[in-house]
Amino acid sequence: MPAGLRAPFSGRAWREFLYLFLSLPMAVLMFTYAVTVIALGAGLLVTFLGIPVLAGGLAGSRALGGLERARARALLGLEVAAPEPVRPAKPGLTAWIGAVLKSGASWRHHLYCLLHFPWAIFAFVFSLVIWSVGWLLLSYPLWRWTFPAYLGRPGIQMGDFGSGHRFYVDTPAEIGFTSGIGLLLVLAGPWVIHGLTQVDRIMVQGLLGPSSLVTRVSQLESGRGAAVDTAAADLRRIERDLHDGAQARLASLAMDLGLAKAKLAEDPQAAAKMVDEAHGEVKIALQELRDLARGIHPAILTDRGLGPALSALAARCTVPVRVTVDPGLSLARRPAAAIEGMAYFTACELLRNVSQHSRAGSATLDVRRTADRLMLLVTDNGRGGAHIHGARIHGTGPRTDGTDAGADTHGGTGLAGLAERLASVDGLLTVDSPVGGPTAITAELPWRG
Fold it and tell me: Does domain 301-446 have CATH number 3.90.228.20?
């Protein structure tokens, strides 16, 4: 059945109608409460009791706002986070009263109690009329018999033209036309009601949720925490690599050279052999240090930019990778150094995942600038199933072997850790990886050049 014909019988339409129907008594309650609090608080200001009354009234408005958010969540499916809590500067009733009066969220809740009242009256009347009249007219042939049976009339009276002449809807054509109008109203009703609830959604989100400034501060705090955790994890990784790699090898090299020095006088040939082995250890240690330095920040990225650095990175991948770089990315047009480094290490993590988990035969790496954003797309033809935090994204599915295609052994972070790193700089990670593949992962970062 087409969506237009299903709409009058859908659960969404009836839930939205119930929301508008219940809005009127709720709005009357909230409006009466808000006006009473303002009037009582203003009248008692001369006795110094008005300030506590206003603070208590605002706290009550916040409680009513919580009920409205719960009602919107249950009937409209609208998830609105609770606003920032009241945080007094110090313990005590006076500090709490001051914090409530200074809270913008408290005043927004009170404003909602006042503004929602006229809108609730209009939405209630309009939705009730169109919904009830539509169903009554549509079902008119089923209950028309009540007029001649109980009222002595042939049908609905549509008008009185004087001289005792009245017009009734009683012929088959008139009954069919009336039912047709009712059908149109019934079909249009859900969409009209949905449009009315959009206004309620805007009011609930704008007045009963956290302010945009507080949300932004929370995002920045979360991003800062993720950046600190990432930096600490990187430092631990560097310390572990140094301790287990170059440091252990150099300690062994020092011992070998000490033994060679002791044998130099009595067995020059054995000493020379030990020095030769130590020379090989030095080369290996130098290579490990170069790899470690490249992992911290590759020199090619600083000297030649993102395009050549990504080409060199793709050349070291165990899976053949085709690299496409926007011609606009050059030494003369480069993003901020922090963004450039973030893009490089994002590509490094994603290509490492392709090598270790995807079982792909080929992959692509596409980098381009779109407006003020840097876009990085990595695709592969592997088995798919990558996801973040176990939550499927864009049709992704679980792995059949008990592992995640998107999991990364580097630092134990995987795609979840990578998403947190990108979020710390206002970036975004999108995963499209259905089971069986192919996988496409897009990283979006701000340009900030």
Answer: no
